[in-house]
Write a structure and sequence with these properties.
alpha+beta, 9 helices, 21% helix, 30% strand, 416 residues, 6-stranded mixed sheet, 5-stranded antiparallel sheet
């Protein structure tokens, strides 16, 4: 097992596009780290620079303490599993898994031993004589993983390996990946755009956007203590609700008040009461006394419940929502609607009460699980625990890209 370090890594393509900006990251020996973010955020480019399939414009990548910027992919002692299975259709599962070892002139007996050991780990022993066309998508992906395992590399790199599977198979294969990573204890960097997949697999998450790392932390810390509005909105299903307003703090109480509509009321602004929410002392600790006139309240969809008709209101914690869509999910349901400012919101609640469309639902919020943010898509969290996670932002632009920057090595034969 080895560590993987990225020190101030940038990737600038010849057309000037900065795909990766100032990434600093250390993946510990035996750690499973997930790079997660929306499409185009730079996560796959970062992985390809670690693999040696993409040149680095600036910075340094170290594997096991050795700088590998100029080391060919085949000499980095890593194995990469791609989104596509890339299996040879004319070869059996055994032959696909053994192919890379044959190229290295590994003795036949050792090849057989390695393949059968990997097949036992992956539950493939019964299908080694079958060709890819007779295998399911999950079996094909496991054969691709087995091909990487038999090499006994110092580290594994996975580039969205489950994205081609259907939803049910993806969940099943995800649990197999988790069990496999715990059994092998090999340093792993895993890329996905699926935040649920990231939360369940990773020891740590690296949340990326626009080529930069936004936050690094455990799945719990990133979910419970997002450092900015982007992370809060990206991590969590359904995504966090955001309401603009103001906060007033005095010696006795801190209160968020939803702003009235900034434009003249129209058909898009429902006739419901604006939210007033008293915040607990934990959230108010870092706020100055007085009034902050432009803040954003973040509320997780799961931190509310629908009130019954006979429950007395609490003006300092209840939200009125004009219901537009109800999505039954069995024991729970998602209710979509709009609040007094016209902003859309979604809440996941127990399906124990009927909530008619076009009705006004009263929801009691968990103020102790709310967050306050500065305005803007990347507004900093005003109530985050600074010890729970790390935010990284590049401070300076890279120098002009070298003539070779941006050239990609072909994937084939580079990792064999």
């Amino acid at each position: 097992m080895v560590s993987i370090e990225l020190d101030g890594v940038w990737k600038t393509f010849p057309d000037g596009i900065e795909a990766v900006r100032g990434v600093d990251l250390t993946v510990g020996s035996g750690e499973f780290v997930v790079l997660v973010g929306p499409s185009g955020c730079g996560k796959s480019t970062t992985l390809r620079m670690i693999a040696g399939l993409e040149d680095i414009s600036r910075g340094e990548v170290r594997i096991g303490g050795r700088a590998v910027n100029n080391v060919p992919a085949k000499d980095r002692d890593i194995a990469m599993v791609f989104q596509s299975y890339a299996l040879y259709p004319h070869m059996t599962a055994f032959e696909n898994m053994a192919f890379g070892l044959k190229l290295r002139k590994i003795p036949r007996a050792e090849i057989r031993d390695r393949v059968h050991k990997a097949a036992d780990v992956l539950g493939l022993s019964d299908i080694l004589d079958r060709k890819p066309r007779s295998l399911s998508g999950g079996q094909r992906q496991r054969v691709a993983v087995g091909r990487a395992i038999v090499r006994e590399p110092a580290a594994f790199l996975f580039d969205e390996p489950l994205s081609n599977l259907d939803a049910k198979l993806r969940v099943a294969t995800r649990s197999e990946f988790k069990a496999l990573s715990e059994r092998l204890e090999t340093t792993t960097v895993y890329v996905t755009h699926d935040q649920e997949e990231a939360m369940t697999l990773g020891d740590r998450l690296v949340v990326m956007s626009e080529g930069a790392i936004q936050q690094i932390g455990s799945p719990f810390d990133v979910f419970a203590s997002p450092v900015n509005r982007f992370v809060a909105g990206f991590i969590g299903t359904p995504p966090m609700n955001f309401f603009r307003g103001s906060v007033t703090r005095d010696a006795e109480q801190t209160t968020f008040r939803m702003e009235p509509p900034r434009e003249a009321p129209d058909a898009g602004v429902p006739n419901v009461a604006p939210l007033t929410l008293d915040l607990p002392g934990r959230l108010a600790a870092g706020l100055p006394e007085g009034t902050l006139s432009d803040v954003v309240l973040g509320v997780r969809p799961s931190t509310a419940r629908v009130l019954g008709e006979n429950e007395p209101p609490r003006p300092a914690s209840d939200l009125e929502l004009l219901v537009e869509v109800v999505e039954p999910l069995g024991a729970q349901m998602d209710i979509h609607g709009r609040v007094a400012t016209g902003e859309k919101a979604i809440f996941r609640v127990d399906a124990t009460r009927t909530v008619p469309v076009r009705s006004v639902a009263r929801l009691r919020l968990r103020a102790d699980q709310a967050h306050l943010f500065e305005p803007g898509d990347f507004g900093a969290c005003l109530t985050a625990d600074p010890s729970a996670a790390v935010m990284i932002a590049p401070a300076e632009p890279p120098p002009a890209a070298s003539p070779r920057a941006g050239s990609a090595r072909p994937e084939s034969a580079q990792l064999e």
